[in-house]
Design a protein that fits this description.
The protein is built from twelve helices and 15 strands. It has about 375 residues and is an alpha+beta fold. A hairpin with a 3-residue loop joins β12 and β13.
């Protein structure tokens, strides 16, 4: 294990031994203000997730969306196609086109950053519970439900949510993977799909300007059933703690999907991790430093995660799910049948459509 990385779940052992107040007093003595704030936030988050989560504390993400990611930062050009890979599965996101203010067709770019991730997690979480997803009485209420403050201006959350919603609405996802054909050979399968059809929802203004707010999105029966069967349970408080760190969100959802399915330790090399959740630069040394920096925050909200930093990558060991299976099974909306952990998305389902969102999943 890398000497610079803290022991797995050390913060939780300290909490059990000394209590949160003692850890907060120790953290208050840290000289660097930013590191002091980060450590206090980490202690608070770790304290919150130590207990068994209640049913309302659970979020969900489809197993297929836990394996690859969107860009962390705004791509250099709105014309660029985004690519990520996980084993035999390859994701390509093509930017969509709209008519700009100058009357010319222009590409809006692919979705990126934490806001896009939070929107997707919200819709899947609510979609597991009911085909009709309520967005609340107003745009401001919906933004707050994402765990974000409501702020205006060019850098505010209102503008950011609108932009990411538009990018999600217009982009096209190409999913390509290799599967075994009936004669025993390899077969390349390609699917091109949009995640959003229709933009009236995403052009709604905040309250006070007289614009109509569409407060619900209805999932189709096929996607709703597939999502409930293949949803990966997450902890809402963990998402809230990581909401401002896109790499942290990606690592948390990847670990939540992968660790509980391992039967033996696995070395996930930096090159392979970069292909799944890496930055636009593709430099594994840069990714390794970022992972080492954010990993304590991820492990703080996933007490049972057994992850070690090695020289050539991350050593993943079989671990418990962040949400006990008994809690997931207790969800009444699942009608007595909890989402089952699977090795990958269902081979039988080629496409899954929502009224506003469309998702296509490959086999593992």
């Amino acid at each position: 294990m890398d000497s610079a990385s803290p022991p797995m779940a050390e913060i939780h052992r300290q909490l059990l031994l000394f209590g949160s107040e003692e850890l907060r007093r120790a953290a208050a003595s840290i000289q660097d203000p930013s590191e002091r704030r980060r450590e206090l936030s980490r202690i608070e988050a770790a304290s919150t997730v130590l207990g068994e989560p209640a049913e309302d504390d659970i979020a969900f993400s489809h197993s297929g969306l836990c394996q690859t990611c969107l860009p962390h930062a705004k791509p250099a050009s709105n014309d660029l196609i985004w690519e990520r890979s996980s084993g035999r599965f390859h994701l390509m996101v093509s930017p969509g086109v709209i008519r700009g203010p100058d009357g010319r067709a222009t590409r809006v770019g692919v979705p990126y950053g934490t806001r896009a991730r939070l929107i997707m997690i919200f819709l899947q979480t609510e979609g597991v519970r009911d085909r009709t997803v309520s967005l609340g009485p107003s745009m401001s209420a919906w933004i707050r439900s994402l765990g974000l403050p409501v702020t205006g201006g060019p850098r505010g959350t209102i503008q950011a949510i609108r932009e990411q919603s538009l990018r999600i609405a217009r982009c096209e996802f190409t999913l390509q993977w290799t599967a075994r054909s009936a004669d025993g050979g390899d077969e390349t399968i390609i699917r091109d799909q949009r995640l959003v059809s229709g933009l009236s929802l995403w052009h709604a203004q905040e309250e006070g300007r007289g614009a109509r707010w569409q407060a619900t999105v209805e999932l189709t029966r096929e996607f709703h059933e597939h999502l409930r069967e293949h949803a990966v349970p997450l902890v809402r408080d963990a998402i809230a703690h990581l909401k401002d760190n896109s790499l942290g969100l990606d690592l948390y959802t990847l670990f939540a999907y992968r660790l509980q399915r391992l039967e033996q330790p696995l070395l996930l090399r930096w090159q392979a991790l970069a292909a799944q959740v890496g930055s636009e630069t593709g430099r594994t040394s840069h990714l390794a430093q970022r992972v080492k920096s954010v990993l304590p925050d991820v492990l703080a909200v996933y007490p049972d995660a057994k992850v070690e930093v090695m020289r050539h990558g991350l050593r993943l060991l079989p671990s418990k799910s962040p949400v006990p299976r008994t809690v997931v099974q207790g969800l009444r909306v699942i009608e007595g049948s909890a989402p089952r952990p699977t090795a990958g998305p269902d081979r039988r389902l080629g496409t899954s459509r929502l009224l506003k969102f469309i998702v296509v999943m490959p086999p593992a």
